[in-house]
Design goal:
The protein folds into two domains: about 325 residues, Alpha-Beta Complex (Adenylosuccinate Synthetase, Chain A, domain 3); about 100 residues, Adenylosuccinate Synthetase, subunit A, domain 2 (Orthogonal Bundle), CATH 1.10.300. With about 425 residues, it is α/β, with parallel strands linked by helices. Helix content is about 30%, strand content about 20%. About 50% of the residues are buried. Helix 3 crosses helix 4 and helix 5 crosses helix 6. The longest helix is centred in the middle third of the chain and has 21 residues. Bound molecules: inosinic acid (IMP). Inosinic acid binds next to helix 4.
Length: about 425
């Protein structure tokens, strides 16, 4: 009766899907607790590659029940598309996927607002995924949200849509010069999904709690990551939910006493999509090499990712914030392509050395990385299955990161395939 959270320690795309897939071999439930189809999780099974935006990565294992928790925002069209695509590839999905009735829906007007706001921000844009995530969470907090359970009641749906659109339609007409949304049209569009979604609607918190009481194992799969957290991340260049460990509790509806393991995932380097500070960002040939070898293009949006060296103060801070019990390092094989490796061990901010992670956003914008140079290993490590198989320099790199972060490693990925990993301690 334990729950394990897998979450990212930087700005997302750390390979959480990959780590979850490894841990899911031993799990009964895999659950998403925050974000929506802004996430992009890739799982490789043999020759098959599954790219998942909303459905938990546990779906690729036929004996796992997957839940989309109350803390997630659900775009019904995206959900239907993803489920259908997975079923066309031979997976049974609808009988194993449960969607919490308390989760909020992403509506077409959320997506429109997301895009209008980004355009209006110009140079100061956040670089969102344009999936309507922020506006959907805004409505949730403002108590104008439409929830998954509302899809089954036309009367309630229309009443809520009317309330949600009262101010928004004025904005669409008067600020953006667009046609207002029609309550009836929106309601019929949503009702088309009723037949598809209704059988999956569930009280997923109760389902997980009952499972945990019956000694089942639950894996909570984070979307986005710690430095994109609305409270703790590089605000305002963040997402609108809490991917951190507290969000896992709120967004899945399970009590903290079940939570035994928190696995923090970091790449062997750093990437970021979207705007905002990234002190270790590189603009040289090394960045190009890492981007190409690491296929650093967004799963959700296809955008090219910003690339930089591992930012240890940031990752250490994220590890402490989440109280991680285990660490997973992904994409170590990508660093085989570079001769010398830098790891950021502190910053210089306005001429002064700073070893922690700055609280003040302005400091983060001014922070210049202080690097420790480590030798590269320059050889193929994709065949390594144990730490001792790694070349000495790769082992030293891993040991340095592990010691600095202060949590034991449970997994090192050395290639994109499911089996290309060094698995040391399975946490679940
Ligand atoms: P939003 O979540 O679409 O509102 O985007 C807010 C910020 O989070 C932007 O910088 C996005 O690029 C970033 N973001 C959102 N989801 C992900 C993800 O799954 N991986 C990496 N970055 C993400």
């Amino acid at each position: 009766m334990t729950a394990t959270v897998v979450l990212g320690l930087a700005w997302g795309d750390e390979g959480k899907g990959r780590v979850c897939d490894a841990l899911a071999s031993d799990a009964d439930y895999v659950s998403r607790y925050s974000g929506g189809n802004n996430a992009g999780h890739t799982v490789r099974v043999g020759r098959e590659e599954f790219k998942l935006n909303l459905v938990p990565s546990g779906i690729v294992r036929e004996d796992v029940v997957c839940t989309i928790g109350n803390g997630v925002v659900v775009n019904p069209e995206a959900l239907a598309g993803e489920v259908q695509a997975l079923e066309e590839r031979g997976l049974s999905v609808r009988d194993r996927l449960k969607v919490d009735g308390r989760a909020h829906l992403i509506m077409p007007y959320h997506i429109a607002l997301d895009s209008h706001r980004e355009i209006a921000l110009g140079e100061a844009r956040i670089g969102t995924t344009n999936r309507g995530i922020g506006p959907a969470y805004e409505d949730k907090v403002a108590r104008y949200g439409i929830r998954v359970q509302d899809i089954s009641d036309e009367g309630i749906l229309k009443t809520k849509l009317k309330a949600a659109l009262r101010e928004k339609n004025a904005i669409f007409e008067n600020v953006y010069g667009e046609e207002p949304y029609d309550v009836g049209e929106l309601a019929s569009r949503l009702l088309e999904f009723e037949e598809f979604i209704a059988p999956m609607i569930s009280d997923t918190g109760t389902l997980l709690r009952e499972g945990l009481e019956n000694r089942r194992k639950v894996l909570l799969e984070g979307g986005q990551a710690t430095l994109l957290d609305n409270d703790h991340g590089t605000y305002p260049f963040v997402t609108s939910s809490n991917p951190t460990v507290g969000g896992a509790i709120v967004g899945s509806g399970i009590p903290t006493r079940y939570l035994e393991y928190v696995v923090g995932v970091t790449k062997a380097y750093t990437t970021r999509v979207g705007d905002g500070p990234m002190p270790t960002e590189l603009f040289d040939e090394t960045a190009e090499t890492i981007r190409e070898v690491g296929r650093e293009y967004g799963t959700a949006t296809g955008r090219s990712r910003r690339v930089g060296w591992l930012d240890l103060p940031a990752v250490k801070w994220a590890a402490a914030l989440n109280g991680i019990t285990h660490l997973a390092i992904t994409l170590l094989d990508v660093l085989s392509a570079v001769e010398k490796i830098n790891v950021c061990v502190g910053y210089e901010i306005d001429g002064e050395r700073f070893d922690g992670y700055p609280m003040h956003q302005t400091d983060l914008h001014h922070a210049r990385p202080v690097y420790r140079e480590l030798p590269g290993w320059g050889e193929d490590i994709t065949g390594c299955r144990m730490r001792v198989d790694l070349p000495r320099e790769a082992r030293e790199f891993v040991e340095f990161v592990e010691a600095e972060i202060g949590a034991p490693l449970c997994m090192i990925s050395v290639g994109p395939e499911r089996e290309q990993a060094i698995v040391e301690r399975i946490a679940v």
